Amino acid sequence: MKEGITFKFKFLDDDGNEASFLSKKGYFDGNELTLDEATLPVETILRVDRRFDNLILQLLQEDGETGFVALAIKKGPIRELSIAINGVSSARWAKLRKQALAEEGKGESFKVTRCPDCKATVDLTHMPQSPQVYCTYCETIHTLGQARPQGEENLRLCDECGFYAVPSYFTVFYFYFLLVIYGWNYGKRYMCHSCMRGNAWKMLFLNLPFLLGVPNALYQLFRIYTGGDRQGRIFAGLDKANHFAKTKKLDMAADYYDSILRRINYGGGVHYSRGLGHFNAGQFEDAVAHLRKALADCGNYFPAYHLLIATYEEMGNVQAVAELQKTYHAVEASEESVIPGEHD
């Protein structure tokens, strides 16, 4: 990186509360992350996750264990900061992976790609070759070797329902007053439009008796119904498909999913949502079929892998679980050869 990034922050405690009144100074120069008086070499940073105005650092400790540090960013470009740290850190860890494989005489198996969205280096070593790649840093899927479908960069899993959609931030606020008892509940989540609609109407009706929470509920409803469609033309209908899948109207959902799949060559995330709908409905054979299609299109789509494992377990298919785990256990073993000591 050409220029360092300066920011102000507060440490967060284990409960997510700010640990100090005054903000501290931070700086990242591409080699070290300075947090007040502490300096972290980029080699000790496994990854950074961003949630709204917070950063969660996953760190490699001296004993080989994984530790976490949470920060509330008070001033500075938090998105650019997280992208910069993950970009440098992921490239360095990929370099270590390459060296470890070369020492084992397996250098030809090393395979990486760069995420077009967050610029992180995505390690594909030991992964099945596929036309799509999942970035474990920004959680998007991107299609290789062709023009990217419009709107694909906005798609990821919804915090609320877990379906592949276009989540947006949603502010939850409930206020209650019961004689001498009063209180409120406040928080932020990333939700798809289907979940946002349901939560916004619920928030409006539950806040009506106390009035104070009504303005926020009305604002959220205004955002939902006037905010436009970030799905784009190619993925139009995905929100409706997911809504029908969540309400177990799978035949109606299938019409919308099929329409989208006819417009794109590969759809790992769309197949995943379809599989999730069948899984929730207890239709495990159909779930397996769609989840296998998801992994065929995007070989490292770990949400599909984990859901497929869960589906096989529900079916009692121990052999299928063992066969599917072989590939992914090879990935875990390769990671352990790079990072010293035991880790989670």
What's the topology here?
Elements: E1 5-11, E2 24-28, E3 32-35, E4 38-41, E5 45-51, E6 54-60, E7 66-75, H1 78-103, E8 112-114, E9 121-123, E10 132-134, E11 141-143, E12 156-157, E13 164-165, E14 168-178, E15 181-191, H2 193-207, H3 214-226, H4 238-246, H5 250-263, H6 268-280, H7 284-297, H8 302-315, H9 318-338
Antiparallel strand pairs: 1-2, 1-7, 2-3, 3-4, 5-6, 6-7, 8-9, 10-11, 12-13, 14-15
Helix pairs in contact: 1-9, 2-3, 4-5, 4-6, 5-6, 6-7, 6-8, 7-8, 8-9
Tally of individual domains: 4
Shape: globular
What kind of sheet is the major sheet? 7 strands, antiparallel
Helix content: 40-55%
Strand order of the largest sheet: 4-3-2-1-7-6-5
Describe the oligomeric state of these chains in a short phrase. single chain
Mean pLDDT level: 86
Give the number of helices. Answer: 9
Number of strands: 15
CATH class of the largest domain: Mainly Alpha
**Share in β-strands:** 15-25%
Q: Could you state the CATH homologous superfamily of the largest domain?
A: Tetratricopeptide repeat domain
- Unreliably modeled segments: 337-344
CATH architecture of the largest domain: Alpha Horseshoe
Structural class: alpha+beta
Write down the Rg: 22 Å
